[in-house]
Amino acid sequence: MLAELILIACLGLVAGLSIGCIGIGGVIVVPALVYIGGLPIEIAIAAAMMGYILTGLIGTFVFAGNKSINWQMAGWLSAAAMPAAMFGAWLSNNIPGVALETIIGLLTMVSGVNTLLSREHDGATAGTLGRGKLVSIGGATGVLSAITGTGGPLVLVPVMLWLQVPVLTAIGLSQAVQLPIATLATIGNFTFGSPDLAIGLILGAGLAIGSYGGAQLAHKLPRQGLKKMVASVLVIIGLIIITRGLANLLGLSFT
């Protein structure tokens, strides 16, 4: 049991580093908890969302200190994401595990492909997104994040990059929005399910330490090469998860 808890903490450390640095990394948490840790997918999702509360706090603090958060955009995104996260938490506790795996796999692969194809821009369009568009993006981010246990960055960062928002602004927004999404989703998980508090706290500790280091690195290191590497890994992980889900549906053995 001790070895499993250490593994969970180390997993959080690695994922947190990636989340803090490039805004994407939470996607590896749930698959690792399920496939390596042997946890039921509903417990894994709930534990991940608990952990993202800490990463959201730390990431927001660091990015705000570096003036990398557009608070007006973050406000509209969060306003829509919070109620959507509650709904997503309900869905995650009422959707079959195979369906959840498929959703996670597709979201992972699409996120990786979109991130690979995206380019960083100079910021000219960062403040031009309308309220309606921000509310729609926030709502979709809240639901998908809570359903899959991927926090907010996995959904939000690729969308922001696709809309030509600069990468630091996109990551900063994902940190700020991650906090209310994770908080509301966790409340929902305790309301609609039975999360494992101990696993959530241990995972959160690893995520918190990693995200602090990653957020610091985000303002010091060139990110294009790292972003492409992580995006490639996301595509591979997504394909593996989708293949596993299809194998389960067909009654085949896939390990």
Topology:
Blueprint: H1 2-22, H2 29-35, H3 41-65, H4 71-92, H5 97-117, H6 131-148, H7 153-162, H8 167-192, H9 197-218, H10 224-249
Helix pairs in contact: 1-8, 1-9, 2-3, 3-8, 3-9, 4-6, 4-8, 5-7, 5-10, 6-7, 6-8, 7-8
Give a quick summary of the entry:
By secondary structure, the protein is mainly alpha-helical.
Low-confidence stretches: 122-126
Shape: globular
Distance between the termini: 22 Å
Task: Estimate the helix proportion, in percent.
Answer: over 70%
Q: Sheet bearing the most strands, described? A: none
Q: How much is the average pLDDT?
A: 79
What's the helix count?
Answer: 10
Element string (H = helix, E = strand): HHHHHHHHHH
Query: What is the rounded Rg?
Result: 17 Å
Structural class: mainly alpha
| Percentage of β-strand residues | under 5%
Give the number of domains: 1
Number of strands: 0
